[in-house]
Specification:
Radius of gyration: 14 Å
Protein name: L-asparaginase 1
CATH architecture: 3-Layer(aba) Sandwich
CATH topology: Rossmann fold
Distance between the termini: 35 Å
InterPro entries: Asp/glu_Ase-like_sf, Asparaginase/glutaminase-like, L-asparaginase_N, L-asparaginase_N_sf
Number of helices: 4
Helix content: 25-40%
CATH class: Alpha Beta
Strand content: 25-35%
Pfam family, one: Asparaginase
Largest sheet: 6 strands, mixed
Number of strands: 10
Enzyme class: hydrolase
Strand order of the largest sheet: 4-1-5-6-7-8
Order of helices and strands: EEEHEHEHEHEEEE
CATH superfamily: L-asparaginase, N-terminal domain
Keywords: Hydrolase
């Protein structure tokens, strides 16, 4: 298996800057997390953006789509901020022949009690067994991207009502 990971920023890659008391999007964390997890599959990490998803534009989403289309791999994992993950997924909705799984985290990967590693593991498992399409893997569940929403009050993803 060869997996292309496209990173776009979001909480998963955020770094806390003590002096400024703010968070900023840092370098992609997926490579170090995969190394720490001792994964045995072939992967490439492509950093496309380093943005909070609330700052993403339609031009950013078009760039992500372009990078997915250009990828020689059929298995694509996209790390993305959770606030607009579904909006970006909607921009990719008609791409044939690829399994695309979005994931992210509610807590930065650099934090000890982050959900990042668990969500990445769920996404890696999902991308290997799902048919072509667009999915979101969060909170231990995998959803078709068009059928999920973020419940901000509960800090989780759930099926649309």
């Amino acid at each position: 298996m060869r997996l292309r990971v496209i990173t776009t920023g979001g909480t998963i890659d955020k770094v806390y800057f003590d002096a400024a008391s703010t968070y900023d999007v840092g370098d992609p964390q997926v490579g170090p997390l995969f190394k720490e997890a001792n994964v045995t599959f072939d992967f490439v990490v492509e950093s496309v953006l380093q943005k909070d998803s609330l700052q993403m534009t339609d031009a950013d989403r078009a760039l992500i789509r372009e990078r997915v289309l250009a990828a020689p791999e059929n298995l694509i994992l996209i790390t993305h901020g959770t606030d607009t993950m579904t909006a970006t997924a909607a921009h990719l909705g008609d791409l044939p022949g690829k399994v695309i799984v979005f994931t992210g985290s509610m807590v930065p990967a650099r934090f000890r009690q982050s959900d990042a590693l668990f969500n990445l593991g769920c996404a890696v498992g999902a991308v290997q067994v799902l048919p072509p399409g667009i999915y979101i893997a969060m909170n231990g569940q995998v959803f078709p991207a068009a059928e999920v929403r973020k419940n901000r009050a509960q800090s989780r993803f759930e099926p649309k009502a």
